[in-house]
Design brief:
alpha+beta; two-stranded antiparallel sheet; 11 strands; Lipoprotein transmembrane
């Protein structure tokens, strides 16, 4: 009888210890970068929609994760999401701000039409000024782009605000289309951010 009680106690202790490990299992790891399964932005809980790696030629440039209020698998649904959103980027190699800015502009231009580019031009120029102040994005630097309804887009580098708040959701959606548009910067990263394998 005693032995059975000891076994029950050991089993219960094992299950309890195992339950403390569950949050760690919830994180997704991409190229050595961990993305939490959920985060808080503007008081709302966001879920990791998907994560992947931006590769250029054979080089891994950065790992990126997309967070939404609920998981979406189509570009249209992601762009129509009304709540807060976040794109989290961790650099896997050093990239000059000039190269990063050029890649950003190329991605924006390839996935927006002329009218939209004209509409968001003031915000695009402000965003460009942010990168003019940073000589380079170094390996392990973390860049986040948050959209908060009724406020705008805010960029952070290693947790510190950089640049001004950009109020138009059209700008944030144009930025998202760099990765999710018809001509994404990386054809493997797009399905990864949409929750694919």
């Amino acid at each position: 009888m005693k032995r059975r009680n000891i076994l029950k106690s050991l089993f219960a202790a094992t299950m309890l210890a195992g339950s403390f490990c569950l949050p760690a299992l919830a994180a997704v790891e991409v190229a050595g970068v961990k993305f939490d399964d959920s985060i808080k932005v503007a008081g709302s809980e966001l879920k990791l929609n998907g994560a992947g790696v931006r590769t250029k030629v054979i080089f891994k440039v950065y790992a990126a994760g997309l967070y939404l209020t609920e998981k979406k698998t189509s570009v249209a649904d992601v762009l129509a999401t009304s709540g807060p959103r976040r794109v989290a980027i961790t650099m896997l190699r050093e990239v000059s701000s000039e190269d990063f800015g050029k890649a950003f502009m190329d991605g924006l231009n390839n996935n927006t039409d002329k009218n939209e580019r004209t509409r968001i031009l003031p915000q695009t120029m402000k965003f460009g000024e942010v990168f003019a102040q940073i000589p380079a994005l170094k390996k392990n630097d973390q860049l986040t782009l948050d959209w908060t309804p009724n406020e705008g887009t805010q960029c952070y580098l290693n947790g510190k605000k950089i640049g001004e708040l950009m109020p138009d959701v059209a700008f944030y959606n144009a930025v998202l289309r760099i990765w999710l548009g018809e001509h994404p910067v990386d054809s493997d990263l797009k399905p990864a951010l949409l929750g694919g394998k």
